[in-house]
Specification:
Blueprint: H1 3-9, E1 17-22, H2 36-39, H3 43-50, E2 53-58, H4 68-75, H5 87-94, E3 104-113, E4 119-121, H6 129-139, E5 148-155, E6 158-164, H7 195-212, E7 220-227, H8 235-239, E8 243-246, H9 250-258, E9 262-263, H10 270-279, E10 286-291, H11 293-299, H12 303-314, H13 317-321, E11 327-331, E12 348-354, H14 368-372, E13 377-380, H15 384-391
Parallel strand pairs: 1-10, 1-11, 2-13, 8-9, 8-10
Antiparallel strand pairs: 2-12, 3-4, 3-6, 3-7, 5-6, 11-12
Length: 400
């Protein structure tokens, strides 16, 4: 269902929908022959799956590996091939930066390079935010002709770079090669009107490299998701509900803000997010709540750490279930198998629990194999929202 049809069919109601996104949820077997979900001790998720409808979601298209932005947009009902947004915009909105229409924003990563300039750690050991603050302050001293330069810390190894000026274009490539052992790439223009912007960004990177040389572990940087803020229809307007987002990481707050959700202030731990959910339960109809640690562990290639992250979030499932949402969904924006140490194209486990009309399909557990046998089958992630709204009584009949 596209957003125009959703807007046409949606009706106001008092029911509540709760979407838990476990970032990087899906995985693959290690040498044991079982995935992280299959090996983790997750009795609460397994029990919830037994009381739900289960399946697998495809974030973009079969075989396409999604970033976190497209993966979340799909779960919010947007076709990620139609509605695209750069990571830089999401980081800017997530830290409440006053992004102007002419600005070009980039998500920056501090990284580690060797003596030959090859990346040995794409995230500089995930250095804490306290270590990035003086680095960002240093980079603010870089001056470029004809534009203002803004550098803001985001969280851990991440920072925001914004160029502000006339005639800037976002038809640009990234500098992150997405693998270690390679040198950062130059920014390239993908359209003639972006040549001048690419040159400015390459000047910034060259000056930054000189300033960061000798700092450990963050002795270099990469730039990703260079973009301007795109127009985006509101999920709250299309769904005719009051939508709220609860996320500790700025990028996900930015994404929620972009699609018209109210972003609720919260703390840094998932327990803080749950407390925020309880505090605001009566004020909203749709809640998106985010758990990050599984994705970070998967990207680090740490199978055991990802299992521990899944076990951690499992400990909160009964608390979420106790909120008595009319529809509770557990989903992932993409798979991040530890054996690949990266996002992947594999379908993502999904469950939908509803208080009314649900057809329990008898899934015995919450994992890739069990969900593949569920009654929902393998479905496009962008259909999750309309399915939830149907079970929440928020869609009317289509046609005569």
């Amino acid at each position: 269902m596209d957003l125009d049809l959703l807007r046409e069919l949606s009706v106001p109601h008092t029911t509540k929908i709760l979407l838990l996104v476990i970032d990087g949820l899906g995985g693959l077997p290690n040498e044991s022959g079982r995935s992280e979900l299959e090996q983790a001790n997750i009795p609460h998720l397994d029990r919830l799956a037994q009381e739900s409808m289960c399946g697998l979601t495809v974030p973009v298209a079969p075989g396409v590996t999604p970033g976190s932005g497209p993966g979340h947009l799909a779960l919010f009902g947007y076709d990620p091939a139609v509605y695209t947004v750069g990571r830089g915009v999401l980081e800017a909105l997530g830290i409440d930066f006053d992004l102007q229409p002419q600005d070009v924003a980039a998500r920056g990563n501090f990284c580690t390079v060797d003596a030959d300039g090859r990346i040995t750690d794409r995230r500089a050991g995930r250095i804490p935010t306290a270590q990035t603050l003086p680095l960002c302050e240093m980079l603010r001293g870089i001056e470029l002709p004809g534009v203002q330069v803004f550098v803001e810390p985001v969280r851990d190894h991440r920072f925001l770079l914004v160029l502000r000026g006339e005639g800037l274009s976002d038809r640009l490539t990234e500098t992150d090669p997405q693998r270690e052992g390679e040198k950062p790439l130059p920014v390239r223009a993908t359209a003639p009107e972006a040549e001048a912007t690419a040159a400015l960004l390459n000047q910034f990177v060259a000056q930054a490299a000189k300033l960061l040389a000798g700092h450990e572990p963050a002795n270099m940087l990469t730039l990703r998701g260079l973009a301007k803020r795109p127009p985006m229809p509101s999920i709250a307007e299309a769904g005719k509900f009051r939508a709220a987002a609860i996320a500790a990481y700025p990028m996900y707050r930015g994404l929620a803000k972009l699609v018209g959700m109210t972003v609720l202030p919260t703390g840094v731990a998932f327990a803080d997010e749950l407390a925020t959910l309880r505090q605001h339960w009566d004020a909203f109809d749709f809640f998106f709540i985010h758990f990050k640690k599984a994705d970070a562990a998967g990207e680090d290639g740490d199978f055991q750490a990802k299992m521990r992250a899944l076990e951690e979030v499992d400990g909160y499932i009964d608390d979420l279930h106790a909120m008595q949402a009319d529809v509770l969904m557990v989903a992932g924006d993409h798979s991040t198998p530890a054996v690949l140490a990266a996002h992947s194209w594999h379908p993502v486990p999904f469950l939908l629990h509803a208080r009314e009309y649900v057809q329990i399909d008898g899934a015995e557990a919450f994992n890739e194999r069990a969900c593949a046998r569920g009654s929902l089958g393998t479905m496009a992630a962008r259909d999750v929202l309309s399915l939830a709204m149907a079970y929440a009584g928020r869609l009317t009949k289509y046609g005569a």
